[in-house]
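Continuing the series of single-chain predictions for the mutant panel. This is the parent chain; the variants come on the following pages.
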Amino acid sequence: MGTYKIKRRNKRINVNLPVTYVYADESKPSPNDGTTFDICQSGMSFYTNTPLKEGLNIEVQTNIWRSPKKCVIKWQSRKSHSTFKVGVSFR
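Parent structure:
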């Protein structure tokens, strides 16, 4: 078993909340849904049924914020046929 260095600066907290996101670059964005996995001061990860491309700008909203947060997709991985886990960084 090898060793590895954790790159995170902020401690993540596991949470399970509904999340809504929209594509920031669309003129009439339609909301998409997901469920949070974890969150920290600088970003979060969530599950969705739509694959999201790295570098894409989105806005996410949960019931813990008053207004949507602007984000950039940092990574995405497929967890099942129709489930994707996405990591975003707040801008």
